[in-house]
Every structure is written in structure tokens, then in C-alpha cells.
Design goal:
By secondary structure, the protein is α/β, with parallel strands linked by helices. It folds into two domains: 158 residues, NAD(P)-binding Rossmann-like Domain (Rossmann fold), CATH 3.40.50.720; 119 residues, N-(1-d-carboxylethyl)-l-norvaline Dehydrogenase, domain 2 (Orthogonal Bundle), CATH 1.10.1040. It is built from twelve helices and seven strands. Strands 2-1-3-4-5-6-7 form a seven-stranded mixed sheet, with helices on both faces. It is elongated. The N and C termini lie far apart (57 Å).
Amino acid sequence: MNFGIIGAGIVGTAIAIRLREAGHNLIGVHSRSQRSYERFCTYLHWEKRPLEEWIPEADLLFITTQDGLIRTAAEELTQRKLYKEGQIWIHCSGSVSSHVMQVDKDLPIHYLSLHPLQAFAGIDQAVELIPGTHFGIEGDADEIGLEIVTQLGGIPHRLDPQQKPLYHAGAVVASNYLVTLVSLAVQLFEEAGITNQEALESLLPLMKGALQNLENVGLPQALTGPIARGDVDVIRGHLEHMPVKIDPVYRALGLYTLDIGQKKMELNGRAYSKEVWEEMNRLMK
């Protein structure tokens, strides 16, 4: 299929590279950022074509702008009548549905969202990670979406467009807030006299081990540590030394972790004693 890209950022560039490798034909790119445009052209060995020239040739049109600009791009394309019958407009946002691109319900085009559930920090990394990445798919051309994701080497999942905010929030918690948790852990290490760099270097293998446990045994069995053991004295010691700013976060996470610990106990045919359960809950509130 012929495809074009509007928004030449990391995701747009990486998807263009992978689509072309899969046999699709790149026919055009448009970006408001000159720097991003030049970088795209370097990666794809591309020369500029006017938007008005290539849009009517595109079977697939990827709008890979920032989330807040997807609607703006769709409105501009609609106002300028830059589309063709049967064309599929695709965005890669996890937070908004494909309907955000539907400016005029009478346009003879289709709308699709393909969201890569991955944290892309750079183009080369994104190109490498796309195969094996899970993609959330929704829209009125989801069969085409399944085909595209499969060609990219990804793993497709259909989404309910009305539930995308919750889906995206889950992704944010797992990825973005993981960075936040590491920052808090580093701060605690620094309070203990360990440098920032040493703290991060020490914590990364621990985190990788936890992720490996999640991959190997899943939830709730991957949980280790004082809550999993019901070690009230260790938890109490943490709280006695906890910095004021981090204390409420530690307690809030602890309450959620108690539920995981209880489920692990039940799966293993065990249970917290009444005294331990009540004391851990009291400490975390």
C-alpha cells in the first residue's frame, strides 16, 4: 500500500522505516518541525514532495503528531479537501480514540488507531523495539490494523475506544510512573549516604530481577519483600526513618501491595495472622 506520514517524530519515523521494510510504499511526509523533517529524510533517504501532491495517492495516512494536534491536523486536511475516497487515516495515540480524526462524518474515509505499547526514547531504539511490541487497535478499519501490526512484527489487541483513557492510564503507571518510583528510591538511597549514580546503578539490577520475576511467575507470585513475608518490624522501621515528602507515597503503595501479598498467601495455601494483617494495615494508613 502507498502510505504517507504527517508528523515526523520518533514514532512516525520508526513506523515509516518498518512499513517500508514490510513492502509498503512511502509517498510523502509532512512536518511542521524542520529539524524532525530533515531527520526523517536522512533516515528514509527522502526528498520533499508537496503535501497536496502526495495526499491523493496515499492509501494509508499516518497522523503521528502530538496527541493535542491530531484533531488540528485532521481539521486542516478536511478543510483543504486533502483526502481520497477509501483512504485510511491512522493515529498512534493511546489516550484518544480514532474518532478524534472524524471532522466530517460524511467524508468517504476510514479512521484507525494503532498504539504501540512501548516507551520509545529514540528512532533507532524504536525501530528495534517495534517487532514484539503490543499494539492497541481500534477504529472502523481494524482488520487492516491487524494486518499492519502483524506486518510490523507487532502483537495486536483490539481496544474499546470508550475505555482508551483507562488503557492509557495503565500504560502511564507501568512506564512513566516506574521512572518516578525509581527517582523516589534513589532519593531514599541518597538519604542513606549513597550517591545518585551509585544508587541508580545498584537499583537497576534489583528492578530487572523484579521484572524477570513478573515475566517468569506473574502476579501475585512475583511479589517479594517484607509485605510478602508479613514482616511488620521491617515496615515499622522504614516508616520511622521515612522522609516526610515520601512517606505518603510509601504508605499508599504499601496498601495496594498488601492486597497483592494477601493474594499470594492465598495461592500458596497460607494466610497472614490476624494481628500481622491488622498491624500492616494500620501502619500504611
